[in-house]
Amino acid sequence: MGRQPCCDKLGVKKGPWTAEEDKKLINFILTNGQCCWRAVPKLAGLRRCGKSCRLRWTNYLRPDLKRGLLSDSEEQLVIDLHARLGNRWSKIAARLPGRTDNEIKNHWNTHIKKKLLKMGIDPVTHEPLNKEEKRTESSSPQPTENNNHAAENDASANSEDNSSSMLAENCSSDDSNLLDSICYDEALLDILLMDAAPLVDASWGIINPPENGNCGTMATALPSWEEDNCSWLLDCQDFGIHDFGFDYLNDNIELNAMNTLDIGDKN
DNA sequence: AAGTCCCTCAACCGCCCAAGG
DNA sequence: GCCTTGGGCGGTTGAGGGACT
Q1: pLDDT in tens, A7-57
Q2: CA A265 to chain CA mean position, Å
Q3: Where is this region: Disordered (predicted)?
Q4: Which terminal Cβ of chain A has fewer Cβ within 10 Å, N or C?
Q5: Which of A225, A228, A217 has its CA nearest to residue A241?
């Protein structure tokens, strides 16, 4: 039998999103909130798979996203969390507000992995490569989930031998202090690693579908954005702020947004 | 200047899980 | 308990652009 495809493959557009499509998706979610991704393309007038819409939204259009490269401290935190959690990118991303699992995964594969290898550290086990070679010589099993946990325990049990301390010298003193406070406080880290509600969604959960069964509207969510963080608007890349009907936002925000759009235009 | 190689990252794919009927 | 469905996750791909020859 097999499961029904998440969308009708016929007539579904694939590939890069256009500014027009982004606009439609944003407009729809601003108006209706996030609900039933399968229905989103139809209701928003998009020839896209619902899954594709969700991905586009969560990885690129979501208002609470940070853009740009990971900072040293973020990178260090990723390394430390990876040593403990393995390739559970969503869990790692949940501890880095404004970052997506996809972004972290990409950054890991393209930057951090190489960095660790260059430093002689196995990016899988987070142990020195020569140590790893000795292990494989003595016919150790392939890395598994359990082995990752073993590495986790190893890392936390032997703070002098873990990747964090090896890499700490690469961080600025500020970064190190941040990491010291986050990574080496076992109690705090245990709390952070618990399956609590993801930090990244805390401010955004407000537009989840409301109890009344209707899709939530952005009307209730917008005030908190105005107060807290409208930086996401600055990151709208291919379209103007006015396209979303945000003219009523204050002048500074709009000015900043337009400045950023100028930068974006250069790309 | 042109061609090729390499790197980055947005997007897709397939699988898994939880919730609801 | 089984089936269906929606959503989420991790792995992989491929287009685009910069670096190199």
Answers
A1: 555 577 888 888 888 888 888 888 887 778 888 888 888 888 888 888 888
A2: 25
A3: 123-170
A4: N
A5: A225
Please give the pLDDT value at position A174. 44
Whole-model pTM: value is 0.65
Question: Do residues A168 and A76 make contact, with C-beta atoms less than 8 angstroms apart?
Answer: yes
Q: Is the CB of A213 under 7 A from strand C?
A: no
Give residue A22's identity as a one-letter amino acid code: D
Q: Please check the confidence at residue A58 and state whether its pLDDT lies above 60.
A: yes
Q: Tokens 């027009």 sit at which residue?
A: A20
Which one, of A81, A86, A62, lies nearest residue A202 by Cα? A62
Look at A159-173, A233-247, A250-264 and tell me which has the smallest mean pLDDT. A250-264
- Distance (Å, rounded) from C-alpha A86 to C-alpha A217? 37
Sequence letter at residue A47: R
Q: What is the DSSP letter of A150?
A: H
pLDDT digits (tens, 9 = 90+) for A87-115: 888 888 888 888 888 888 888 888 888 88
**Upper half-sphere CA count for residue A54 (Cβ side, 13 Å):** 11
Residues A207 and A219: beta-carbon distance below 8 Å: no
What does the DSSP 8-state code read for residue A62? Answer: -
Q: Which of A233, A242, A243 is nearest to A264 (CA)?
A: A233
Residue A199 Cβ < 7 Å to strand C:
no
Annotate A76-130 with DSSP letters as a single string. HHHHHHHHHH-S-HHHHHHTSTT--HHHHHHHIIIIIHHHHHHTTB-TTT-SBHH
